[in-house]
Amino acid sequence: MKYKTNSEIRWHKLDNTANVFPVISNKTYSSVFRVSVRLKNEINGELLQEALVNTLPLFRSFGVKLKRGVFWHYFETNKKQPKVEREQEYPCAFIDPNSNNQFLFKVTYFAKRINLEVFHVITDGTGALKFLKALTYNYIKLAYKEILSEILLKMPVVDVVSDVEDSYHKNYRKHSYPRYKTKRAYKLKGDMLPVFTMGVIHGIVNMDLLLALCKKKNVSLTQYIAALLIWCIYKEYMNEQANKKPVQVNVPVNLRHFFSSTTEMNFFSYINVGITSTKSEYTFDEMLDSVSGQFEKQLTKENLSQTISSNVSTEKNIFVRFSPLVLKQLGVKIAYVSSTKANTVVLSNLGKIEVCDGFKEYIDGFEALIGVSKSEPIKCTICSFDNRIIFSFTSILRYPYLQRAFFRHLSDEGLEVRLESNGVYYENM
Amino acid sequence: MKGWRSDWKATVFIMKTCKRCRLSIGDETDICPLCRTVLTDMGGENPDTTYPEIEVNSHKYNIIKRLFLFVSILSAVVSTITNYMTYNGVMWSAITISAIIYFWVIIFYSIKRNRNITSHILVQVICVPILAVVMDNSVGYIGWSVNNVIPEIMILANVAVLVLVFVNRMYWHTYVLNQIVIAICGLIPGILLLCGVITAWIPAVIATATSFLVLVVMIVFGDKTIKSELKRRFHF
């Protein structure tokens, strides 16, 4: 009998990007992000726990613990059960792989919101959203057992079960790739919030009105917002002066559409768009033109494929493969520090989130938050659901100058903005 | 329970607005979080709280840690100065300092949760020989550290892991990597003996033999689970 249980240990390797996260993460830079769903009624913790227990077996990528090998980290099946908790920490706090029953994610709830906090090593935003949606469906099924129709109660909560393919390796093509040089970007500086404190500001706007605004300028939403972030930094932080260092917006890109993958592990890359301020009278439209041009140039399958190949070929390098983990960690740390120098802010658009029809009436909206660090002190996410868009800013800077300029611009454009915060800015200003 | 707000427009009839930012604020507050302007009340019900109040309580633990750190540094400094002023050929303060460092390493390692029990043994296998050699050298090298302490700690560690494996046969695979490392460490006394560093041969031979035996046991009795564990640990 004992042999049977032991031989059942399943394991899988980390994907190409995930290898970075166990090395660079600590209490001050957690590599944790949060996706949340707002429901229309108060959350019941016990039902949520039950829903979580029902959901986890469908996701092999989530039911794991992180182990150290001699050459690489790896995931091993975690046989314990994760615990749902009432929210009691700042968002995106570090998840110690040795605590939390060794799970690399946390499910918490507060009032009408369910939060899924994920250590980036197991998955990216798309994978996390898939898990959150399945969890939400399972929760709604339990909470509204009596009123839901038979069809809804029997409806599967995921369409693909436990796809843990490393799509980076799957789509690796051996071709020559130019080594991209990282240029030092302009950095946001200023007084900090108290240590381990995270400021959160959400702004909710009407989607149709904002999309109409983008359409008028003939750009996409992400392009518009990326340009707006640069514009706000130029106005608020650079005081409309010339500066040698460019303002760089780092935009994570979901690669699943480009390479038709359904993996639940990480499968994303970045593009970097930026503007070097050479004069003191830029207009917003000028910036918008330049940014949307850069988007179109960088957001091609060709370009993304090159980035993948470059990253995977590093992992496949024979010297890298056989150097012990301790040595790799040192290398990754050095490479990571130099790569963050290239970003001013991070902007992640999770897109328009679709849910199954029957469940839609119980859901109010989705939002996402990304953990920040000293070198990237402000990060912004966009989540669209139904007819509204939620912009969420996480920041460790004391004064929300960027956020203020950002939302004032939107209201100047005639949009109604509703603001919500986690209260940090009332106490700590 | 309040009624369901299925229509977005319904949530937007806002209670408070900031006249500078021209935004509506959905928090329970009187000032704008962006610019601290006093808000204009537009009436309507109070919004729900959306975030909990956070208590940060990392202070208590830190005071104890700081106290220990202070005492450690104080005793290191005092013993060094005393040693220097009353120097008679014995560097006994090195013992104090290395013992303090040993203490900190062990404490820090022990309080980390979910550590494999054999890792604790491995840490001792690494730290105790260093401590012993420093002590031996600082009171004038006699050789008791390499002749006795190192081989004996290796024997002890190997036997301890064997006992653990025997008691917890189900979890042998979780110990196996550390067991290999400890067994290989156990071969060191044999090498030192060949190099002539060790002069008392009995403990060194026993230590090397024990380690060798442990490796043989692993090869002979290791089953599929051990093999697959090693495959995971050594994947490249």
UniProtKB/TrEMBL annotation, chain A:
Protein name (database record): NRPS condensation-like uncharacterized protein
Organism taxonomic ancestry: Bacteria, Bacillati, Bacillota, Clostridia, Eubacteriales
TrEMBL record, chain B:
Key word Disulfide bond present: no
Transmembrane region(s): 67-85, 91-109, 121-143, 149-168, 175-194, 200-222
Keywords: Membrane, Transmembrane, Transmembrane helix
Family annotation (Pfam families): DUF6320 (PF19845)
Keyword Transmembrane helix: yes
InterPro entries: DUF6320
Name recorded for this polypeptide: Zinc ribbon domain-containing protein
Organism taxonomic ancestry: Bacteria, Bacillati, Bacillota, Clostridia, Eubacteriales
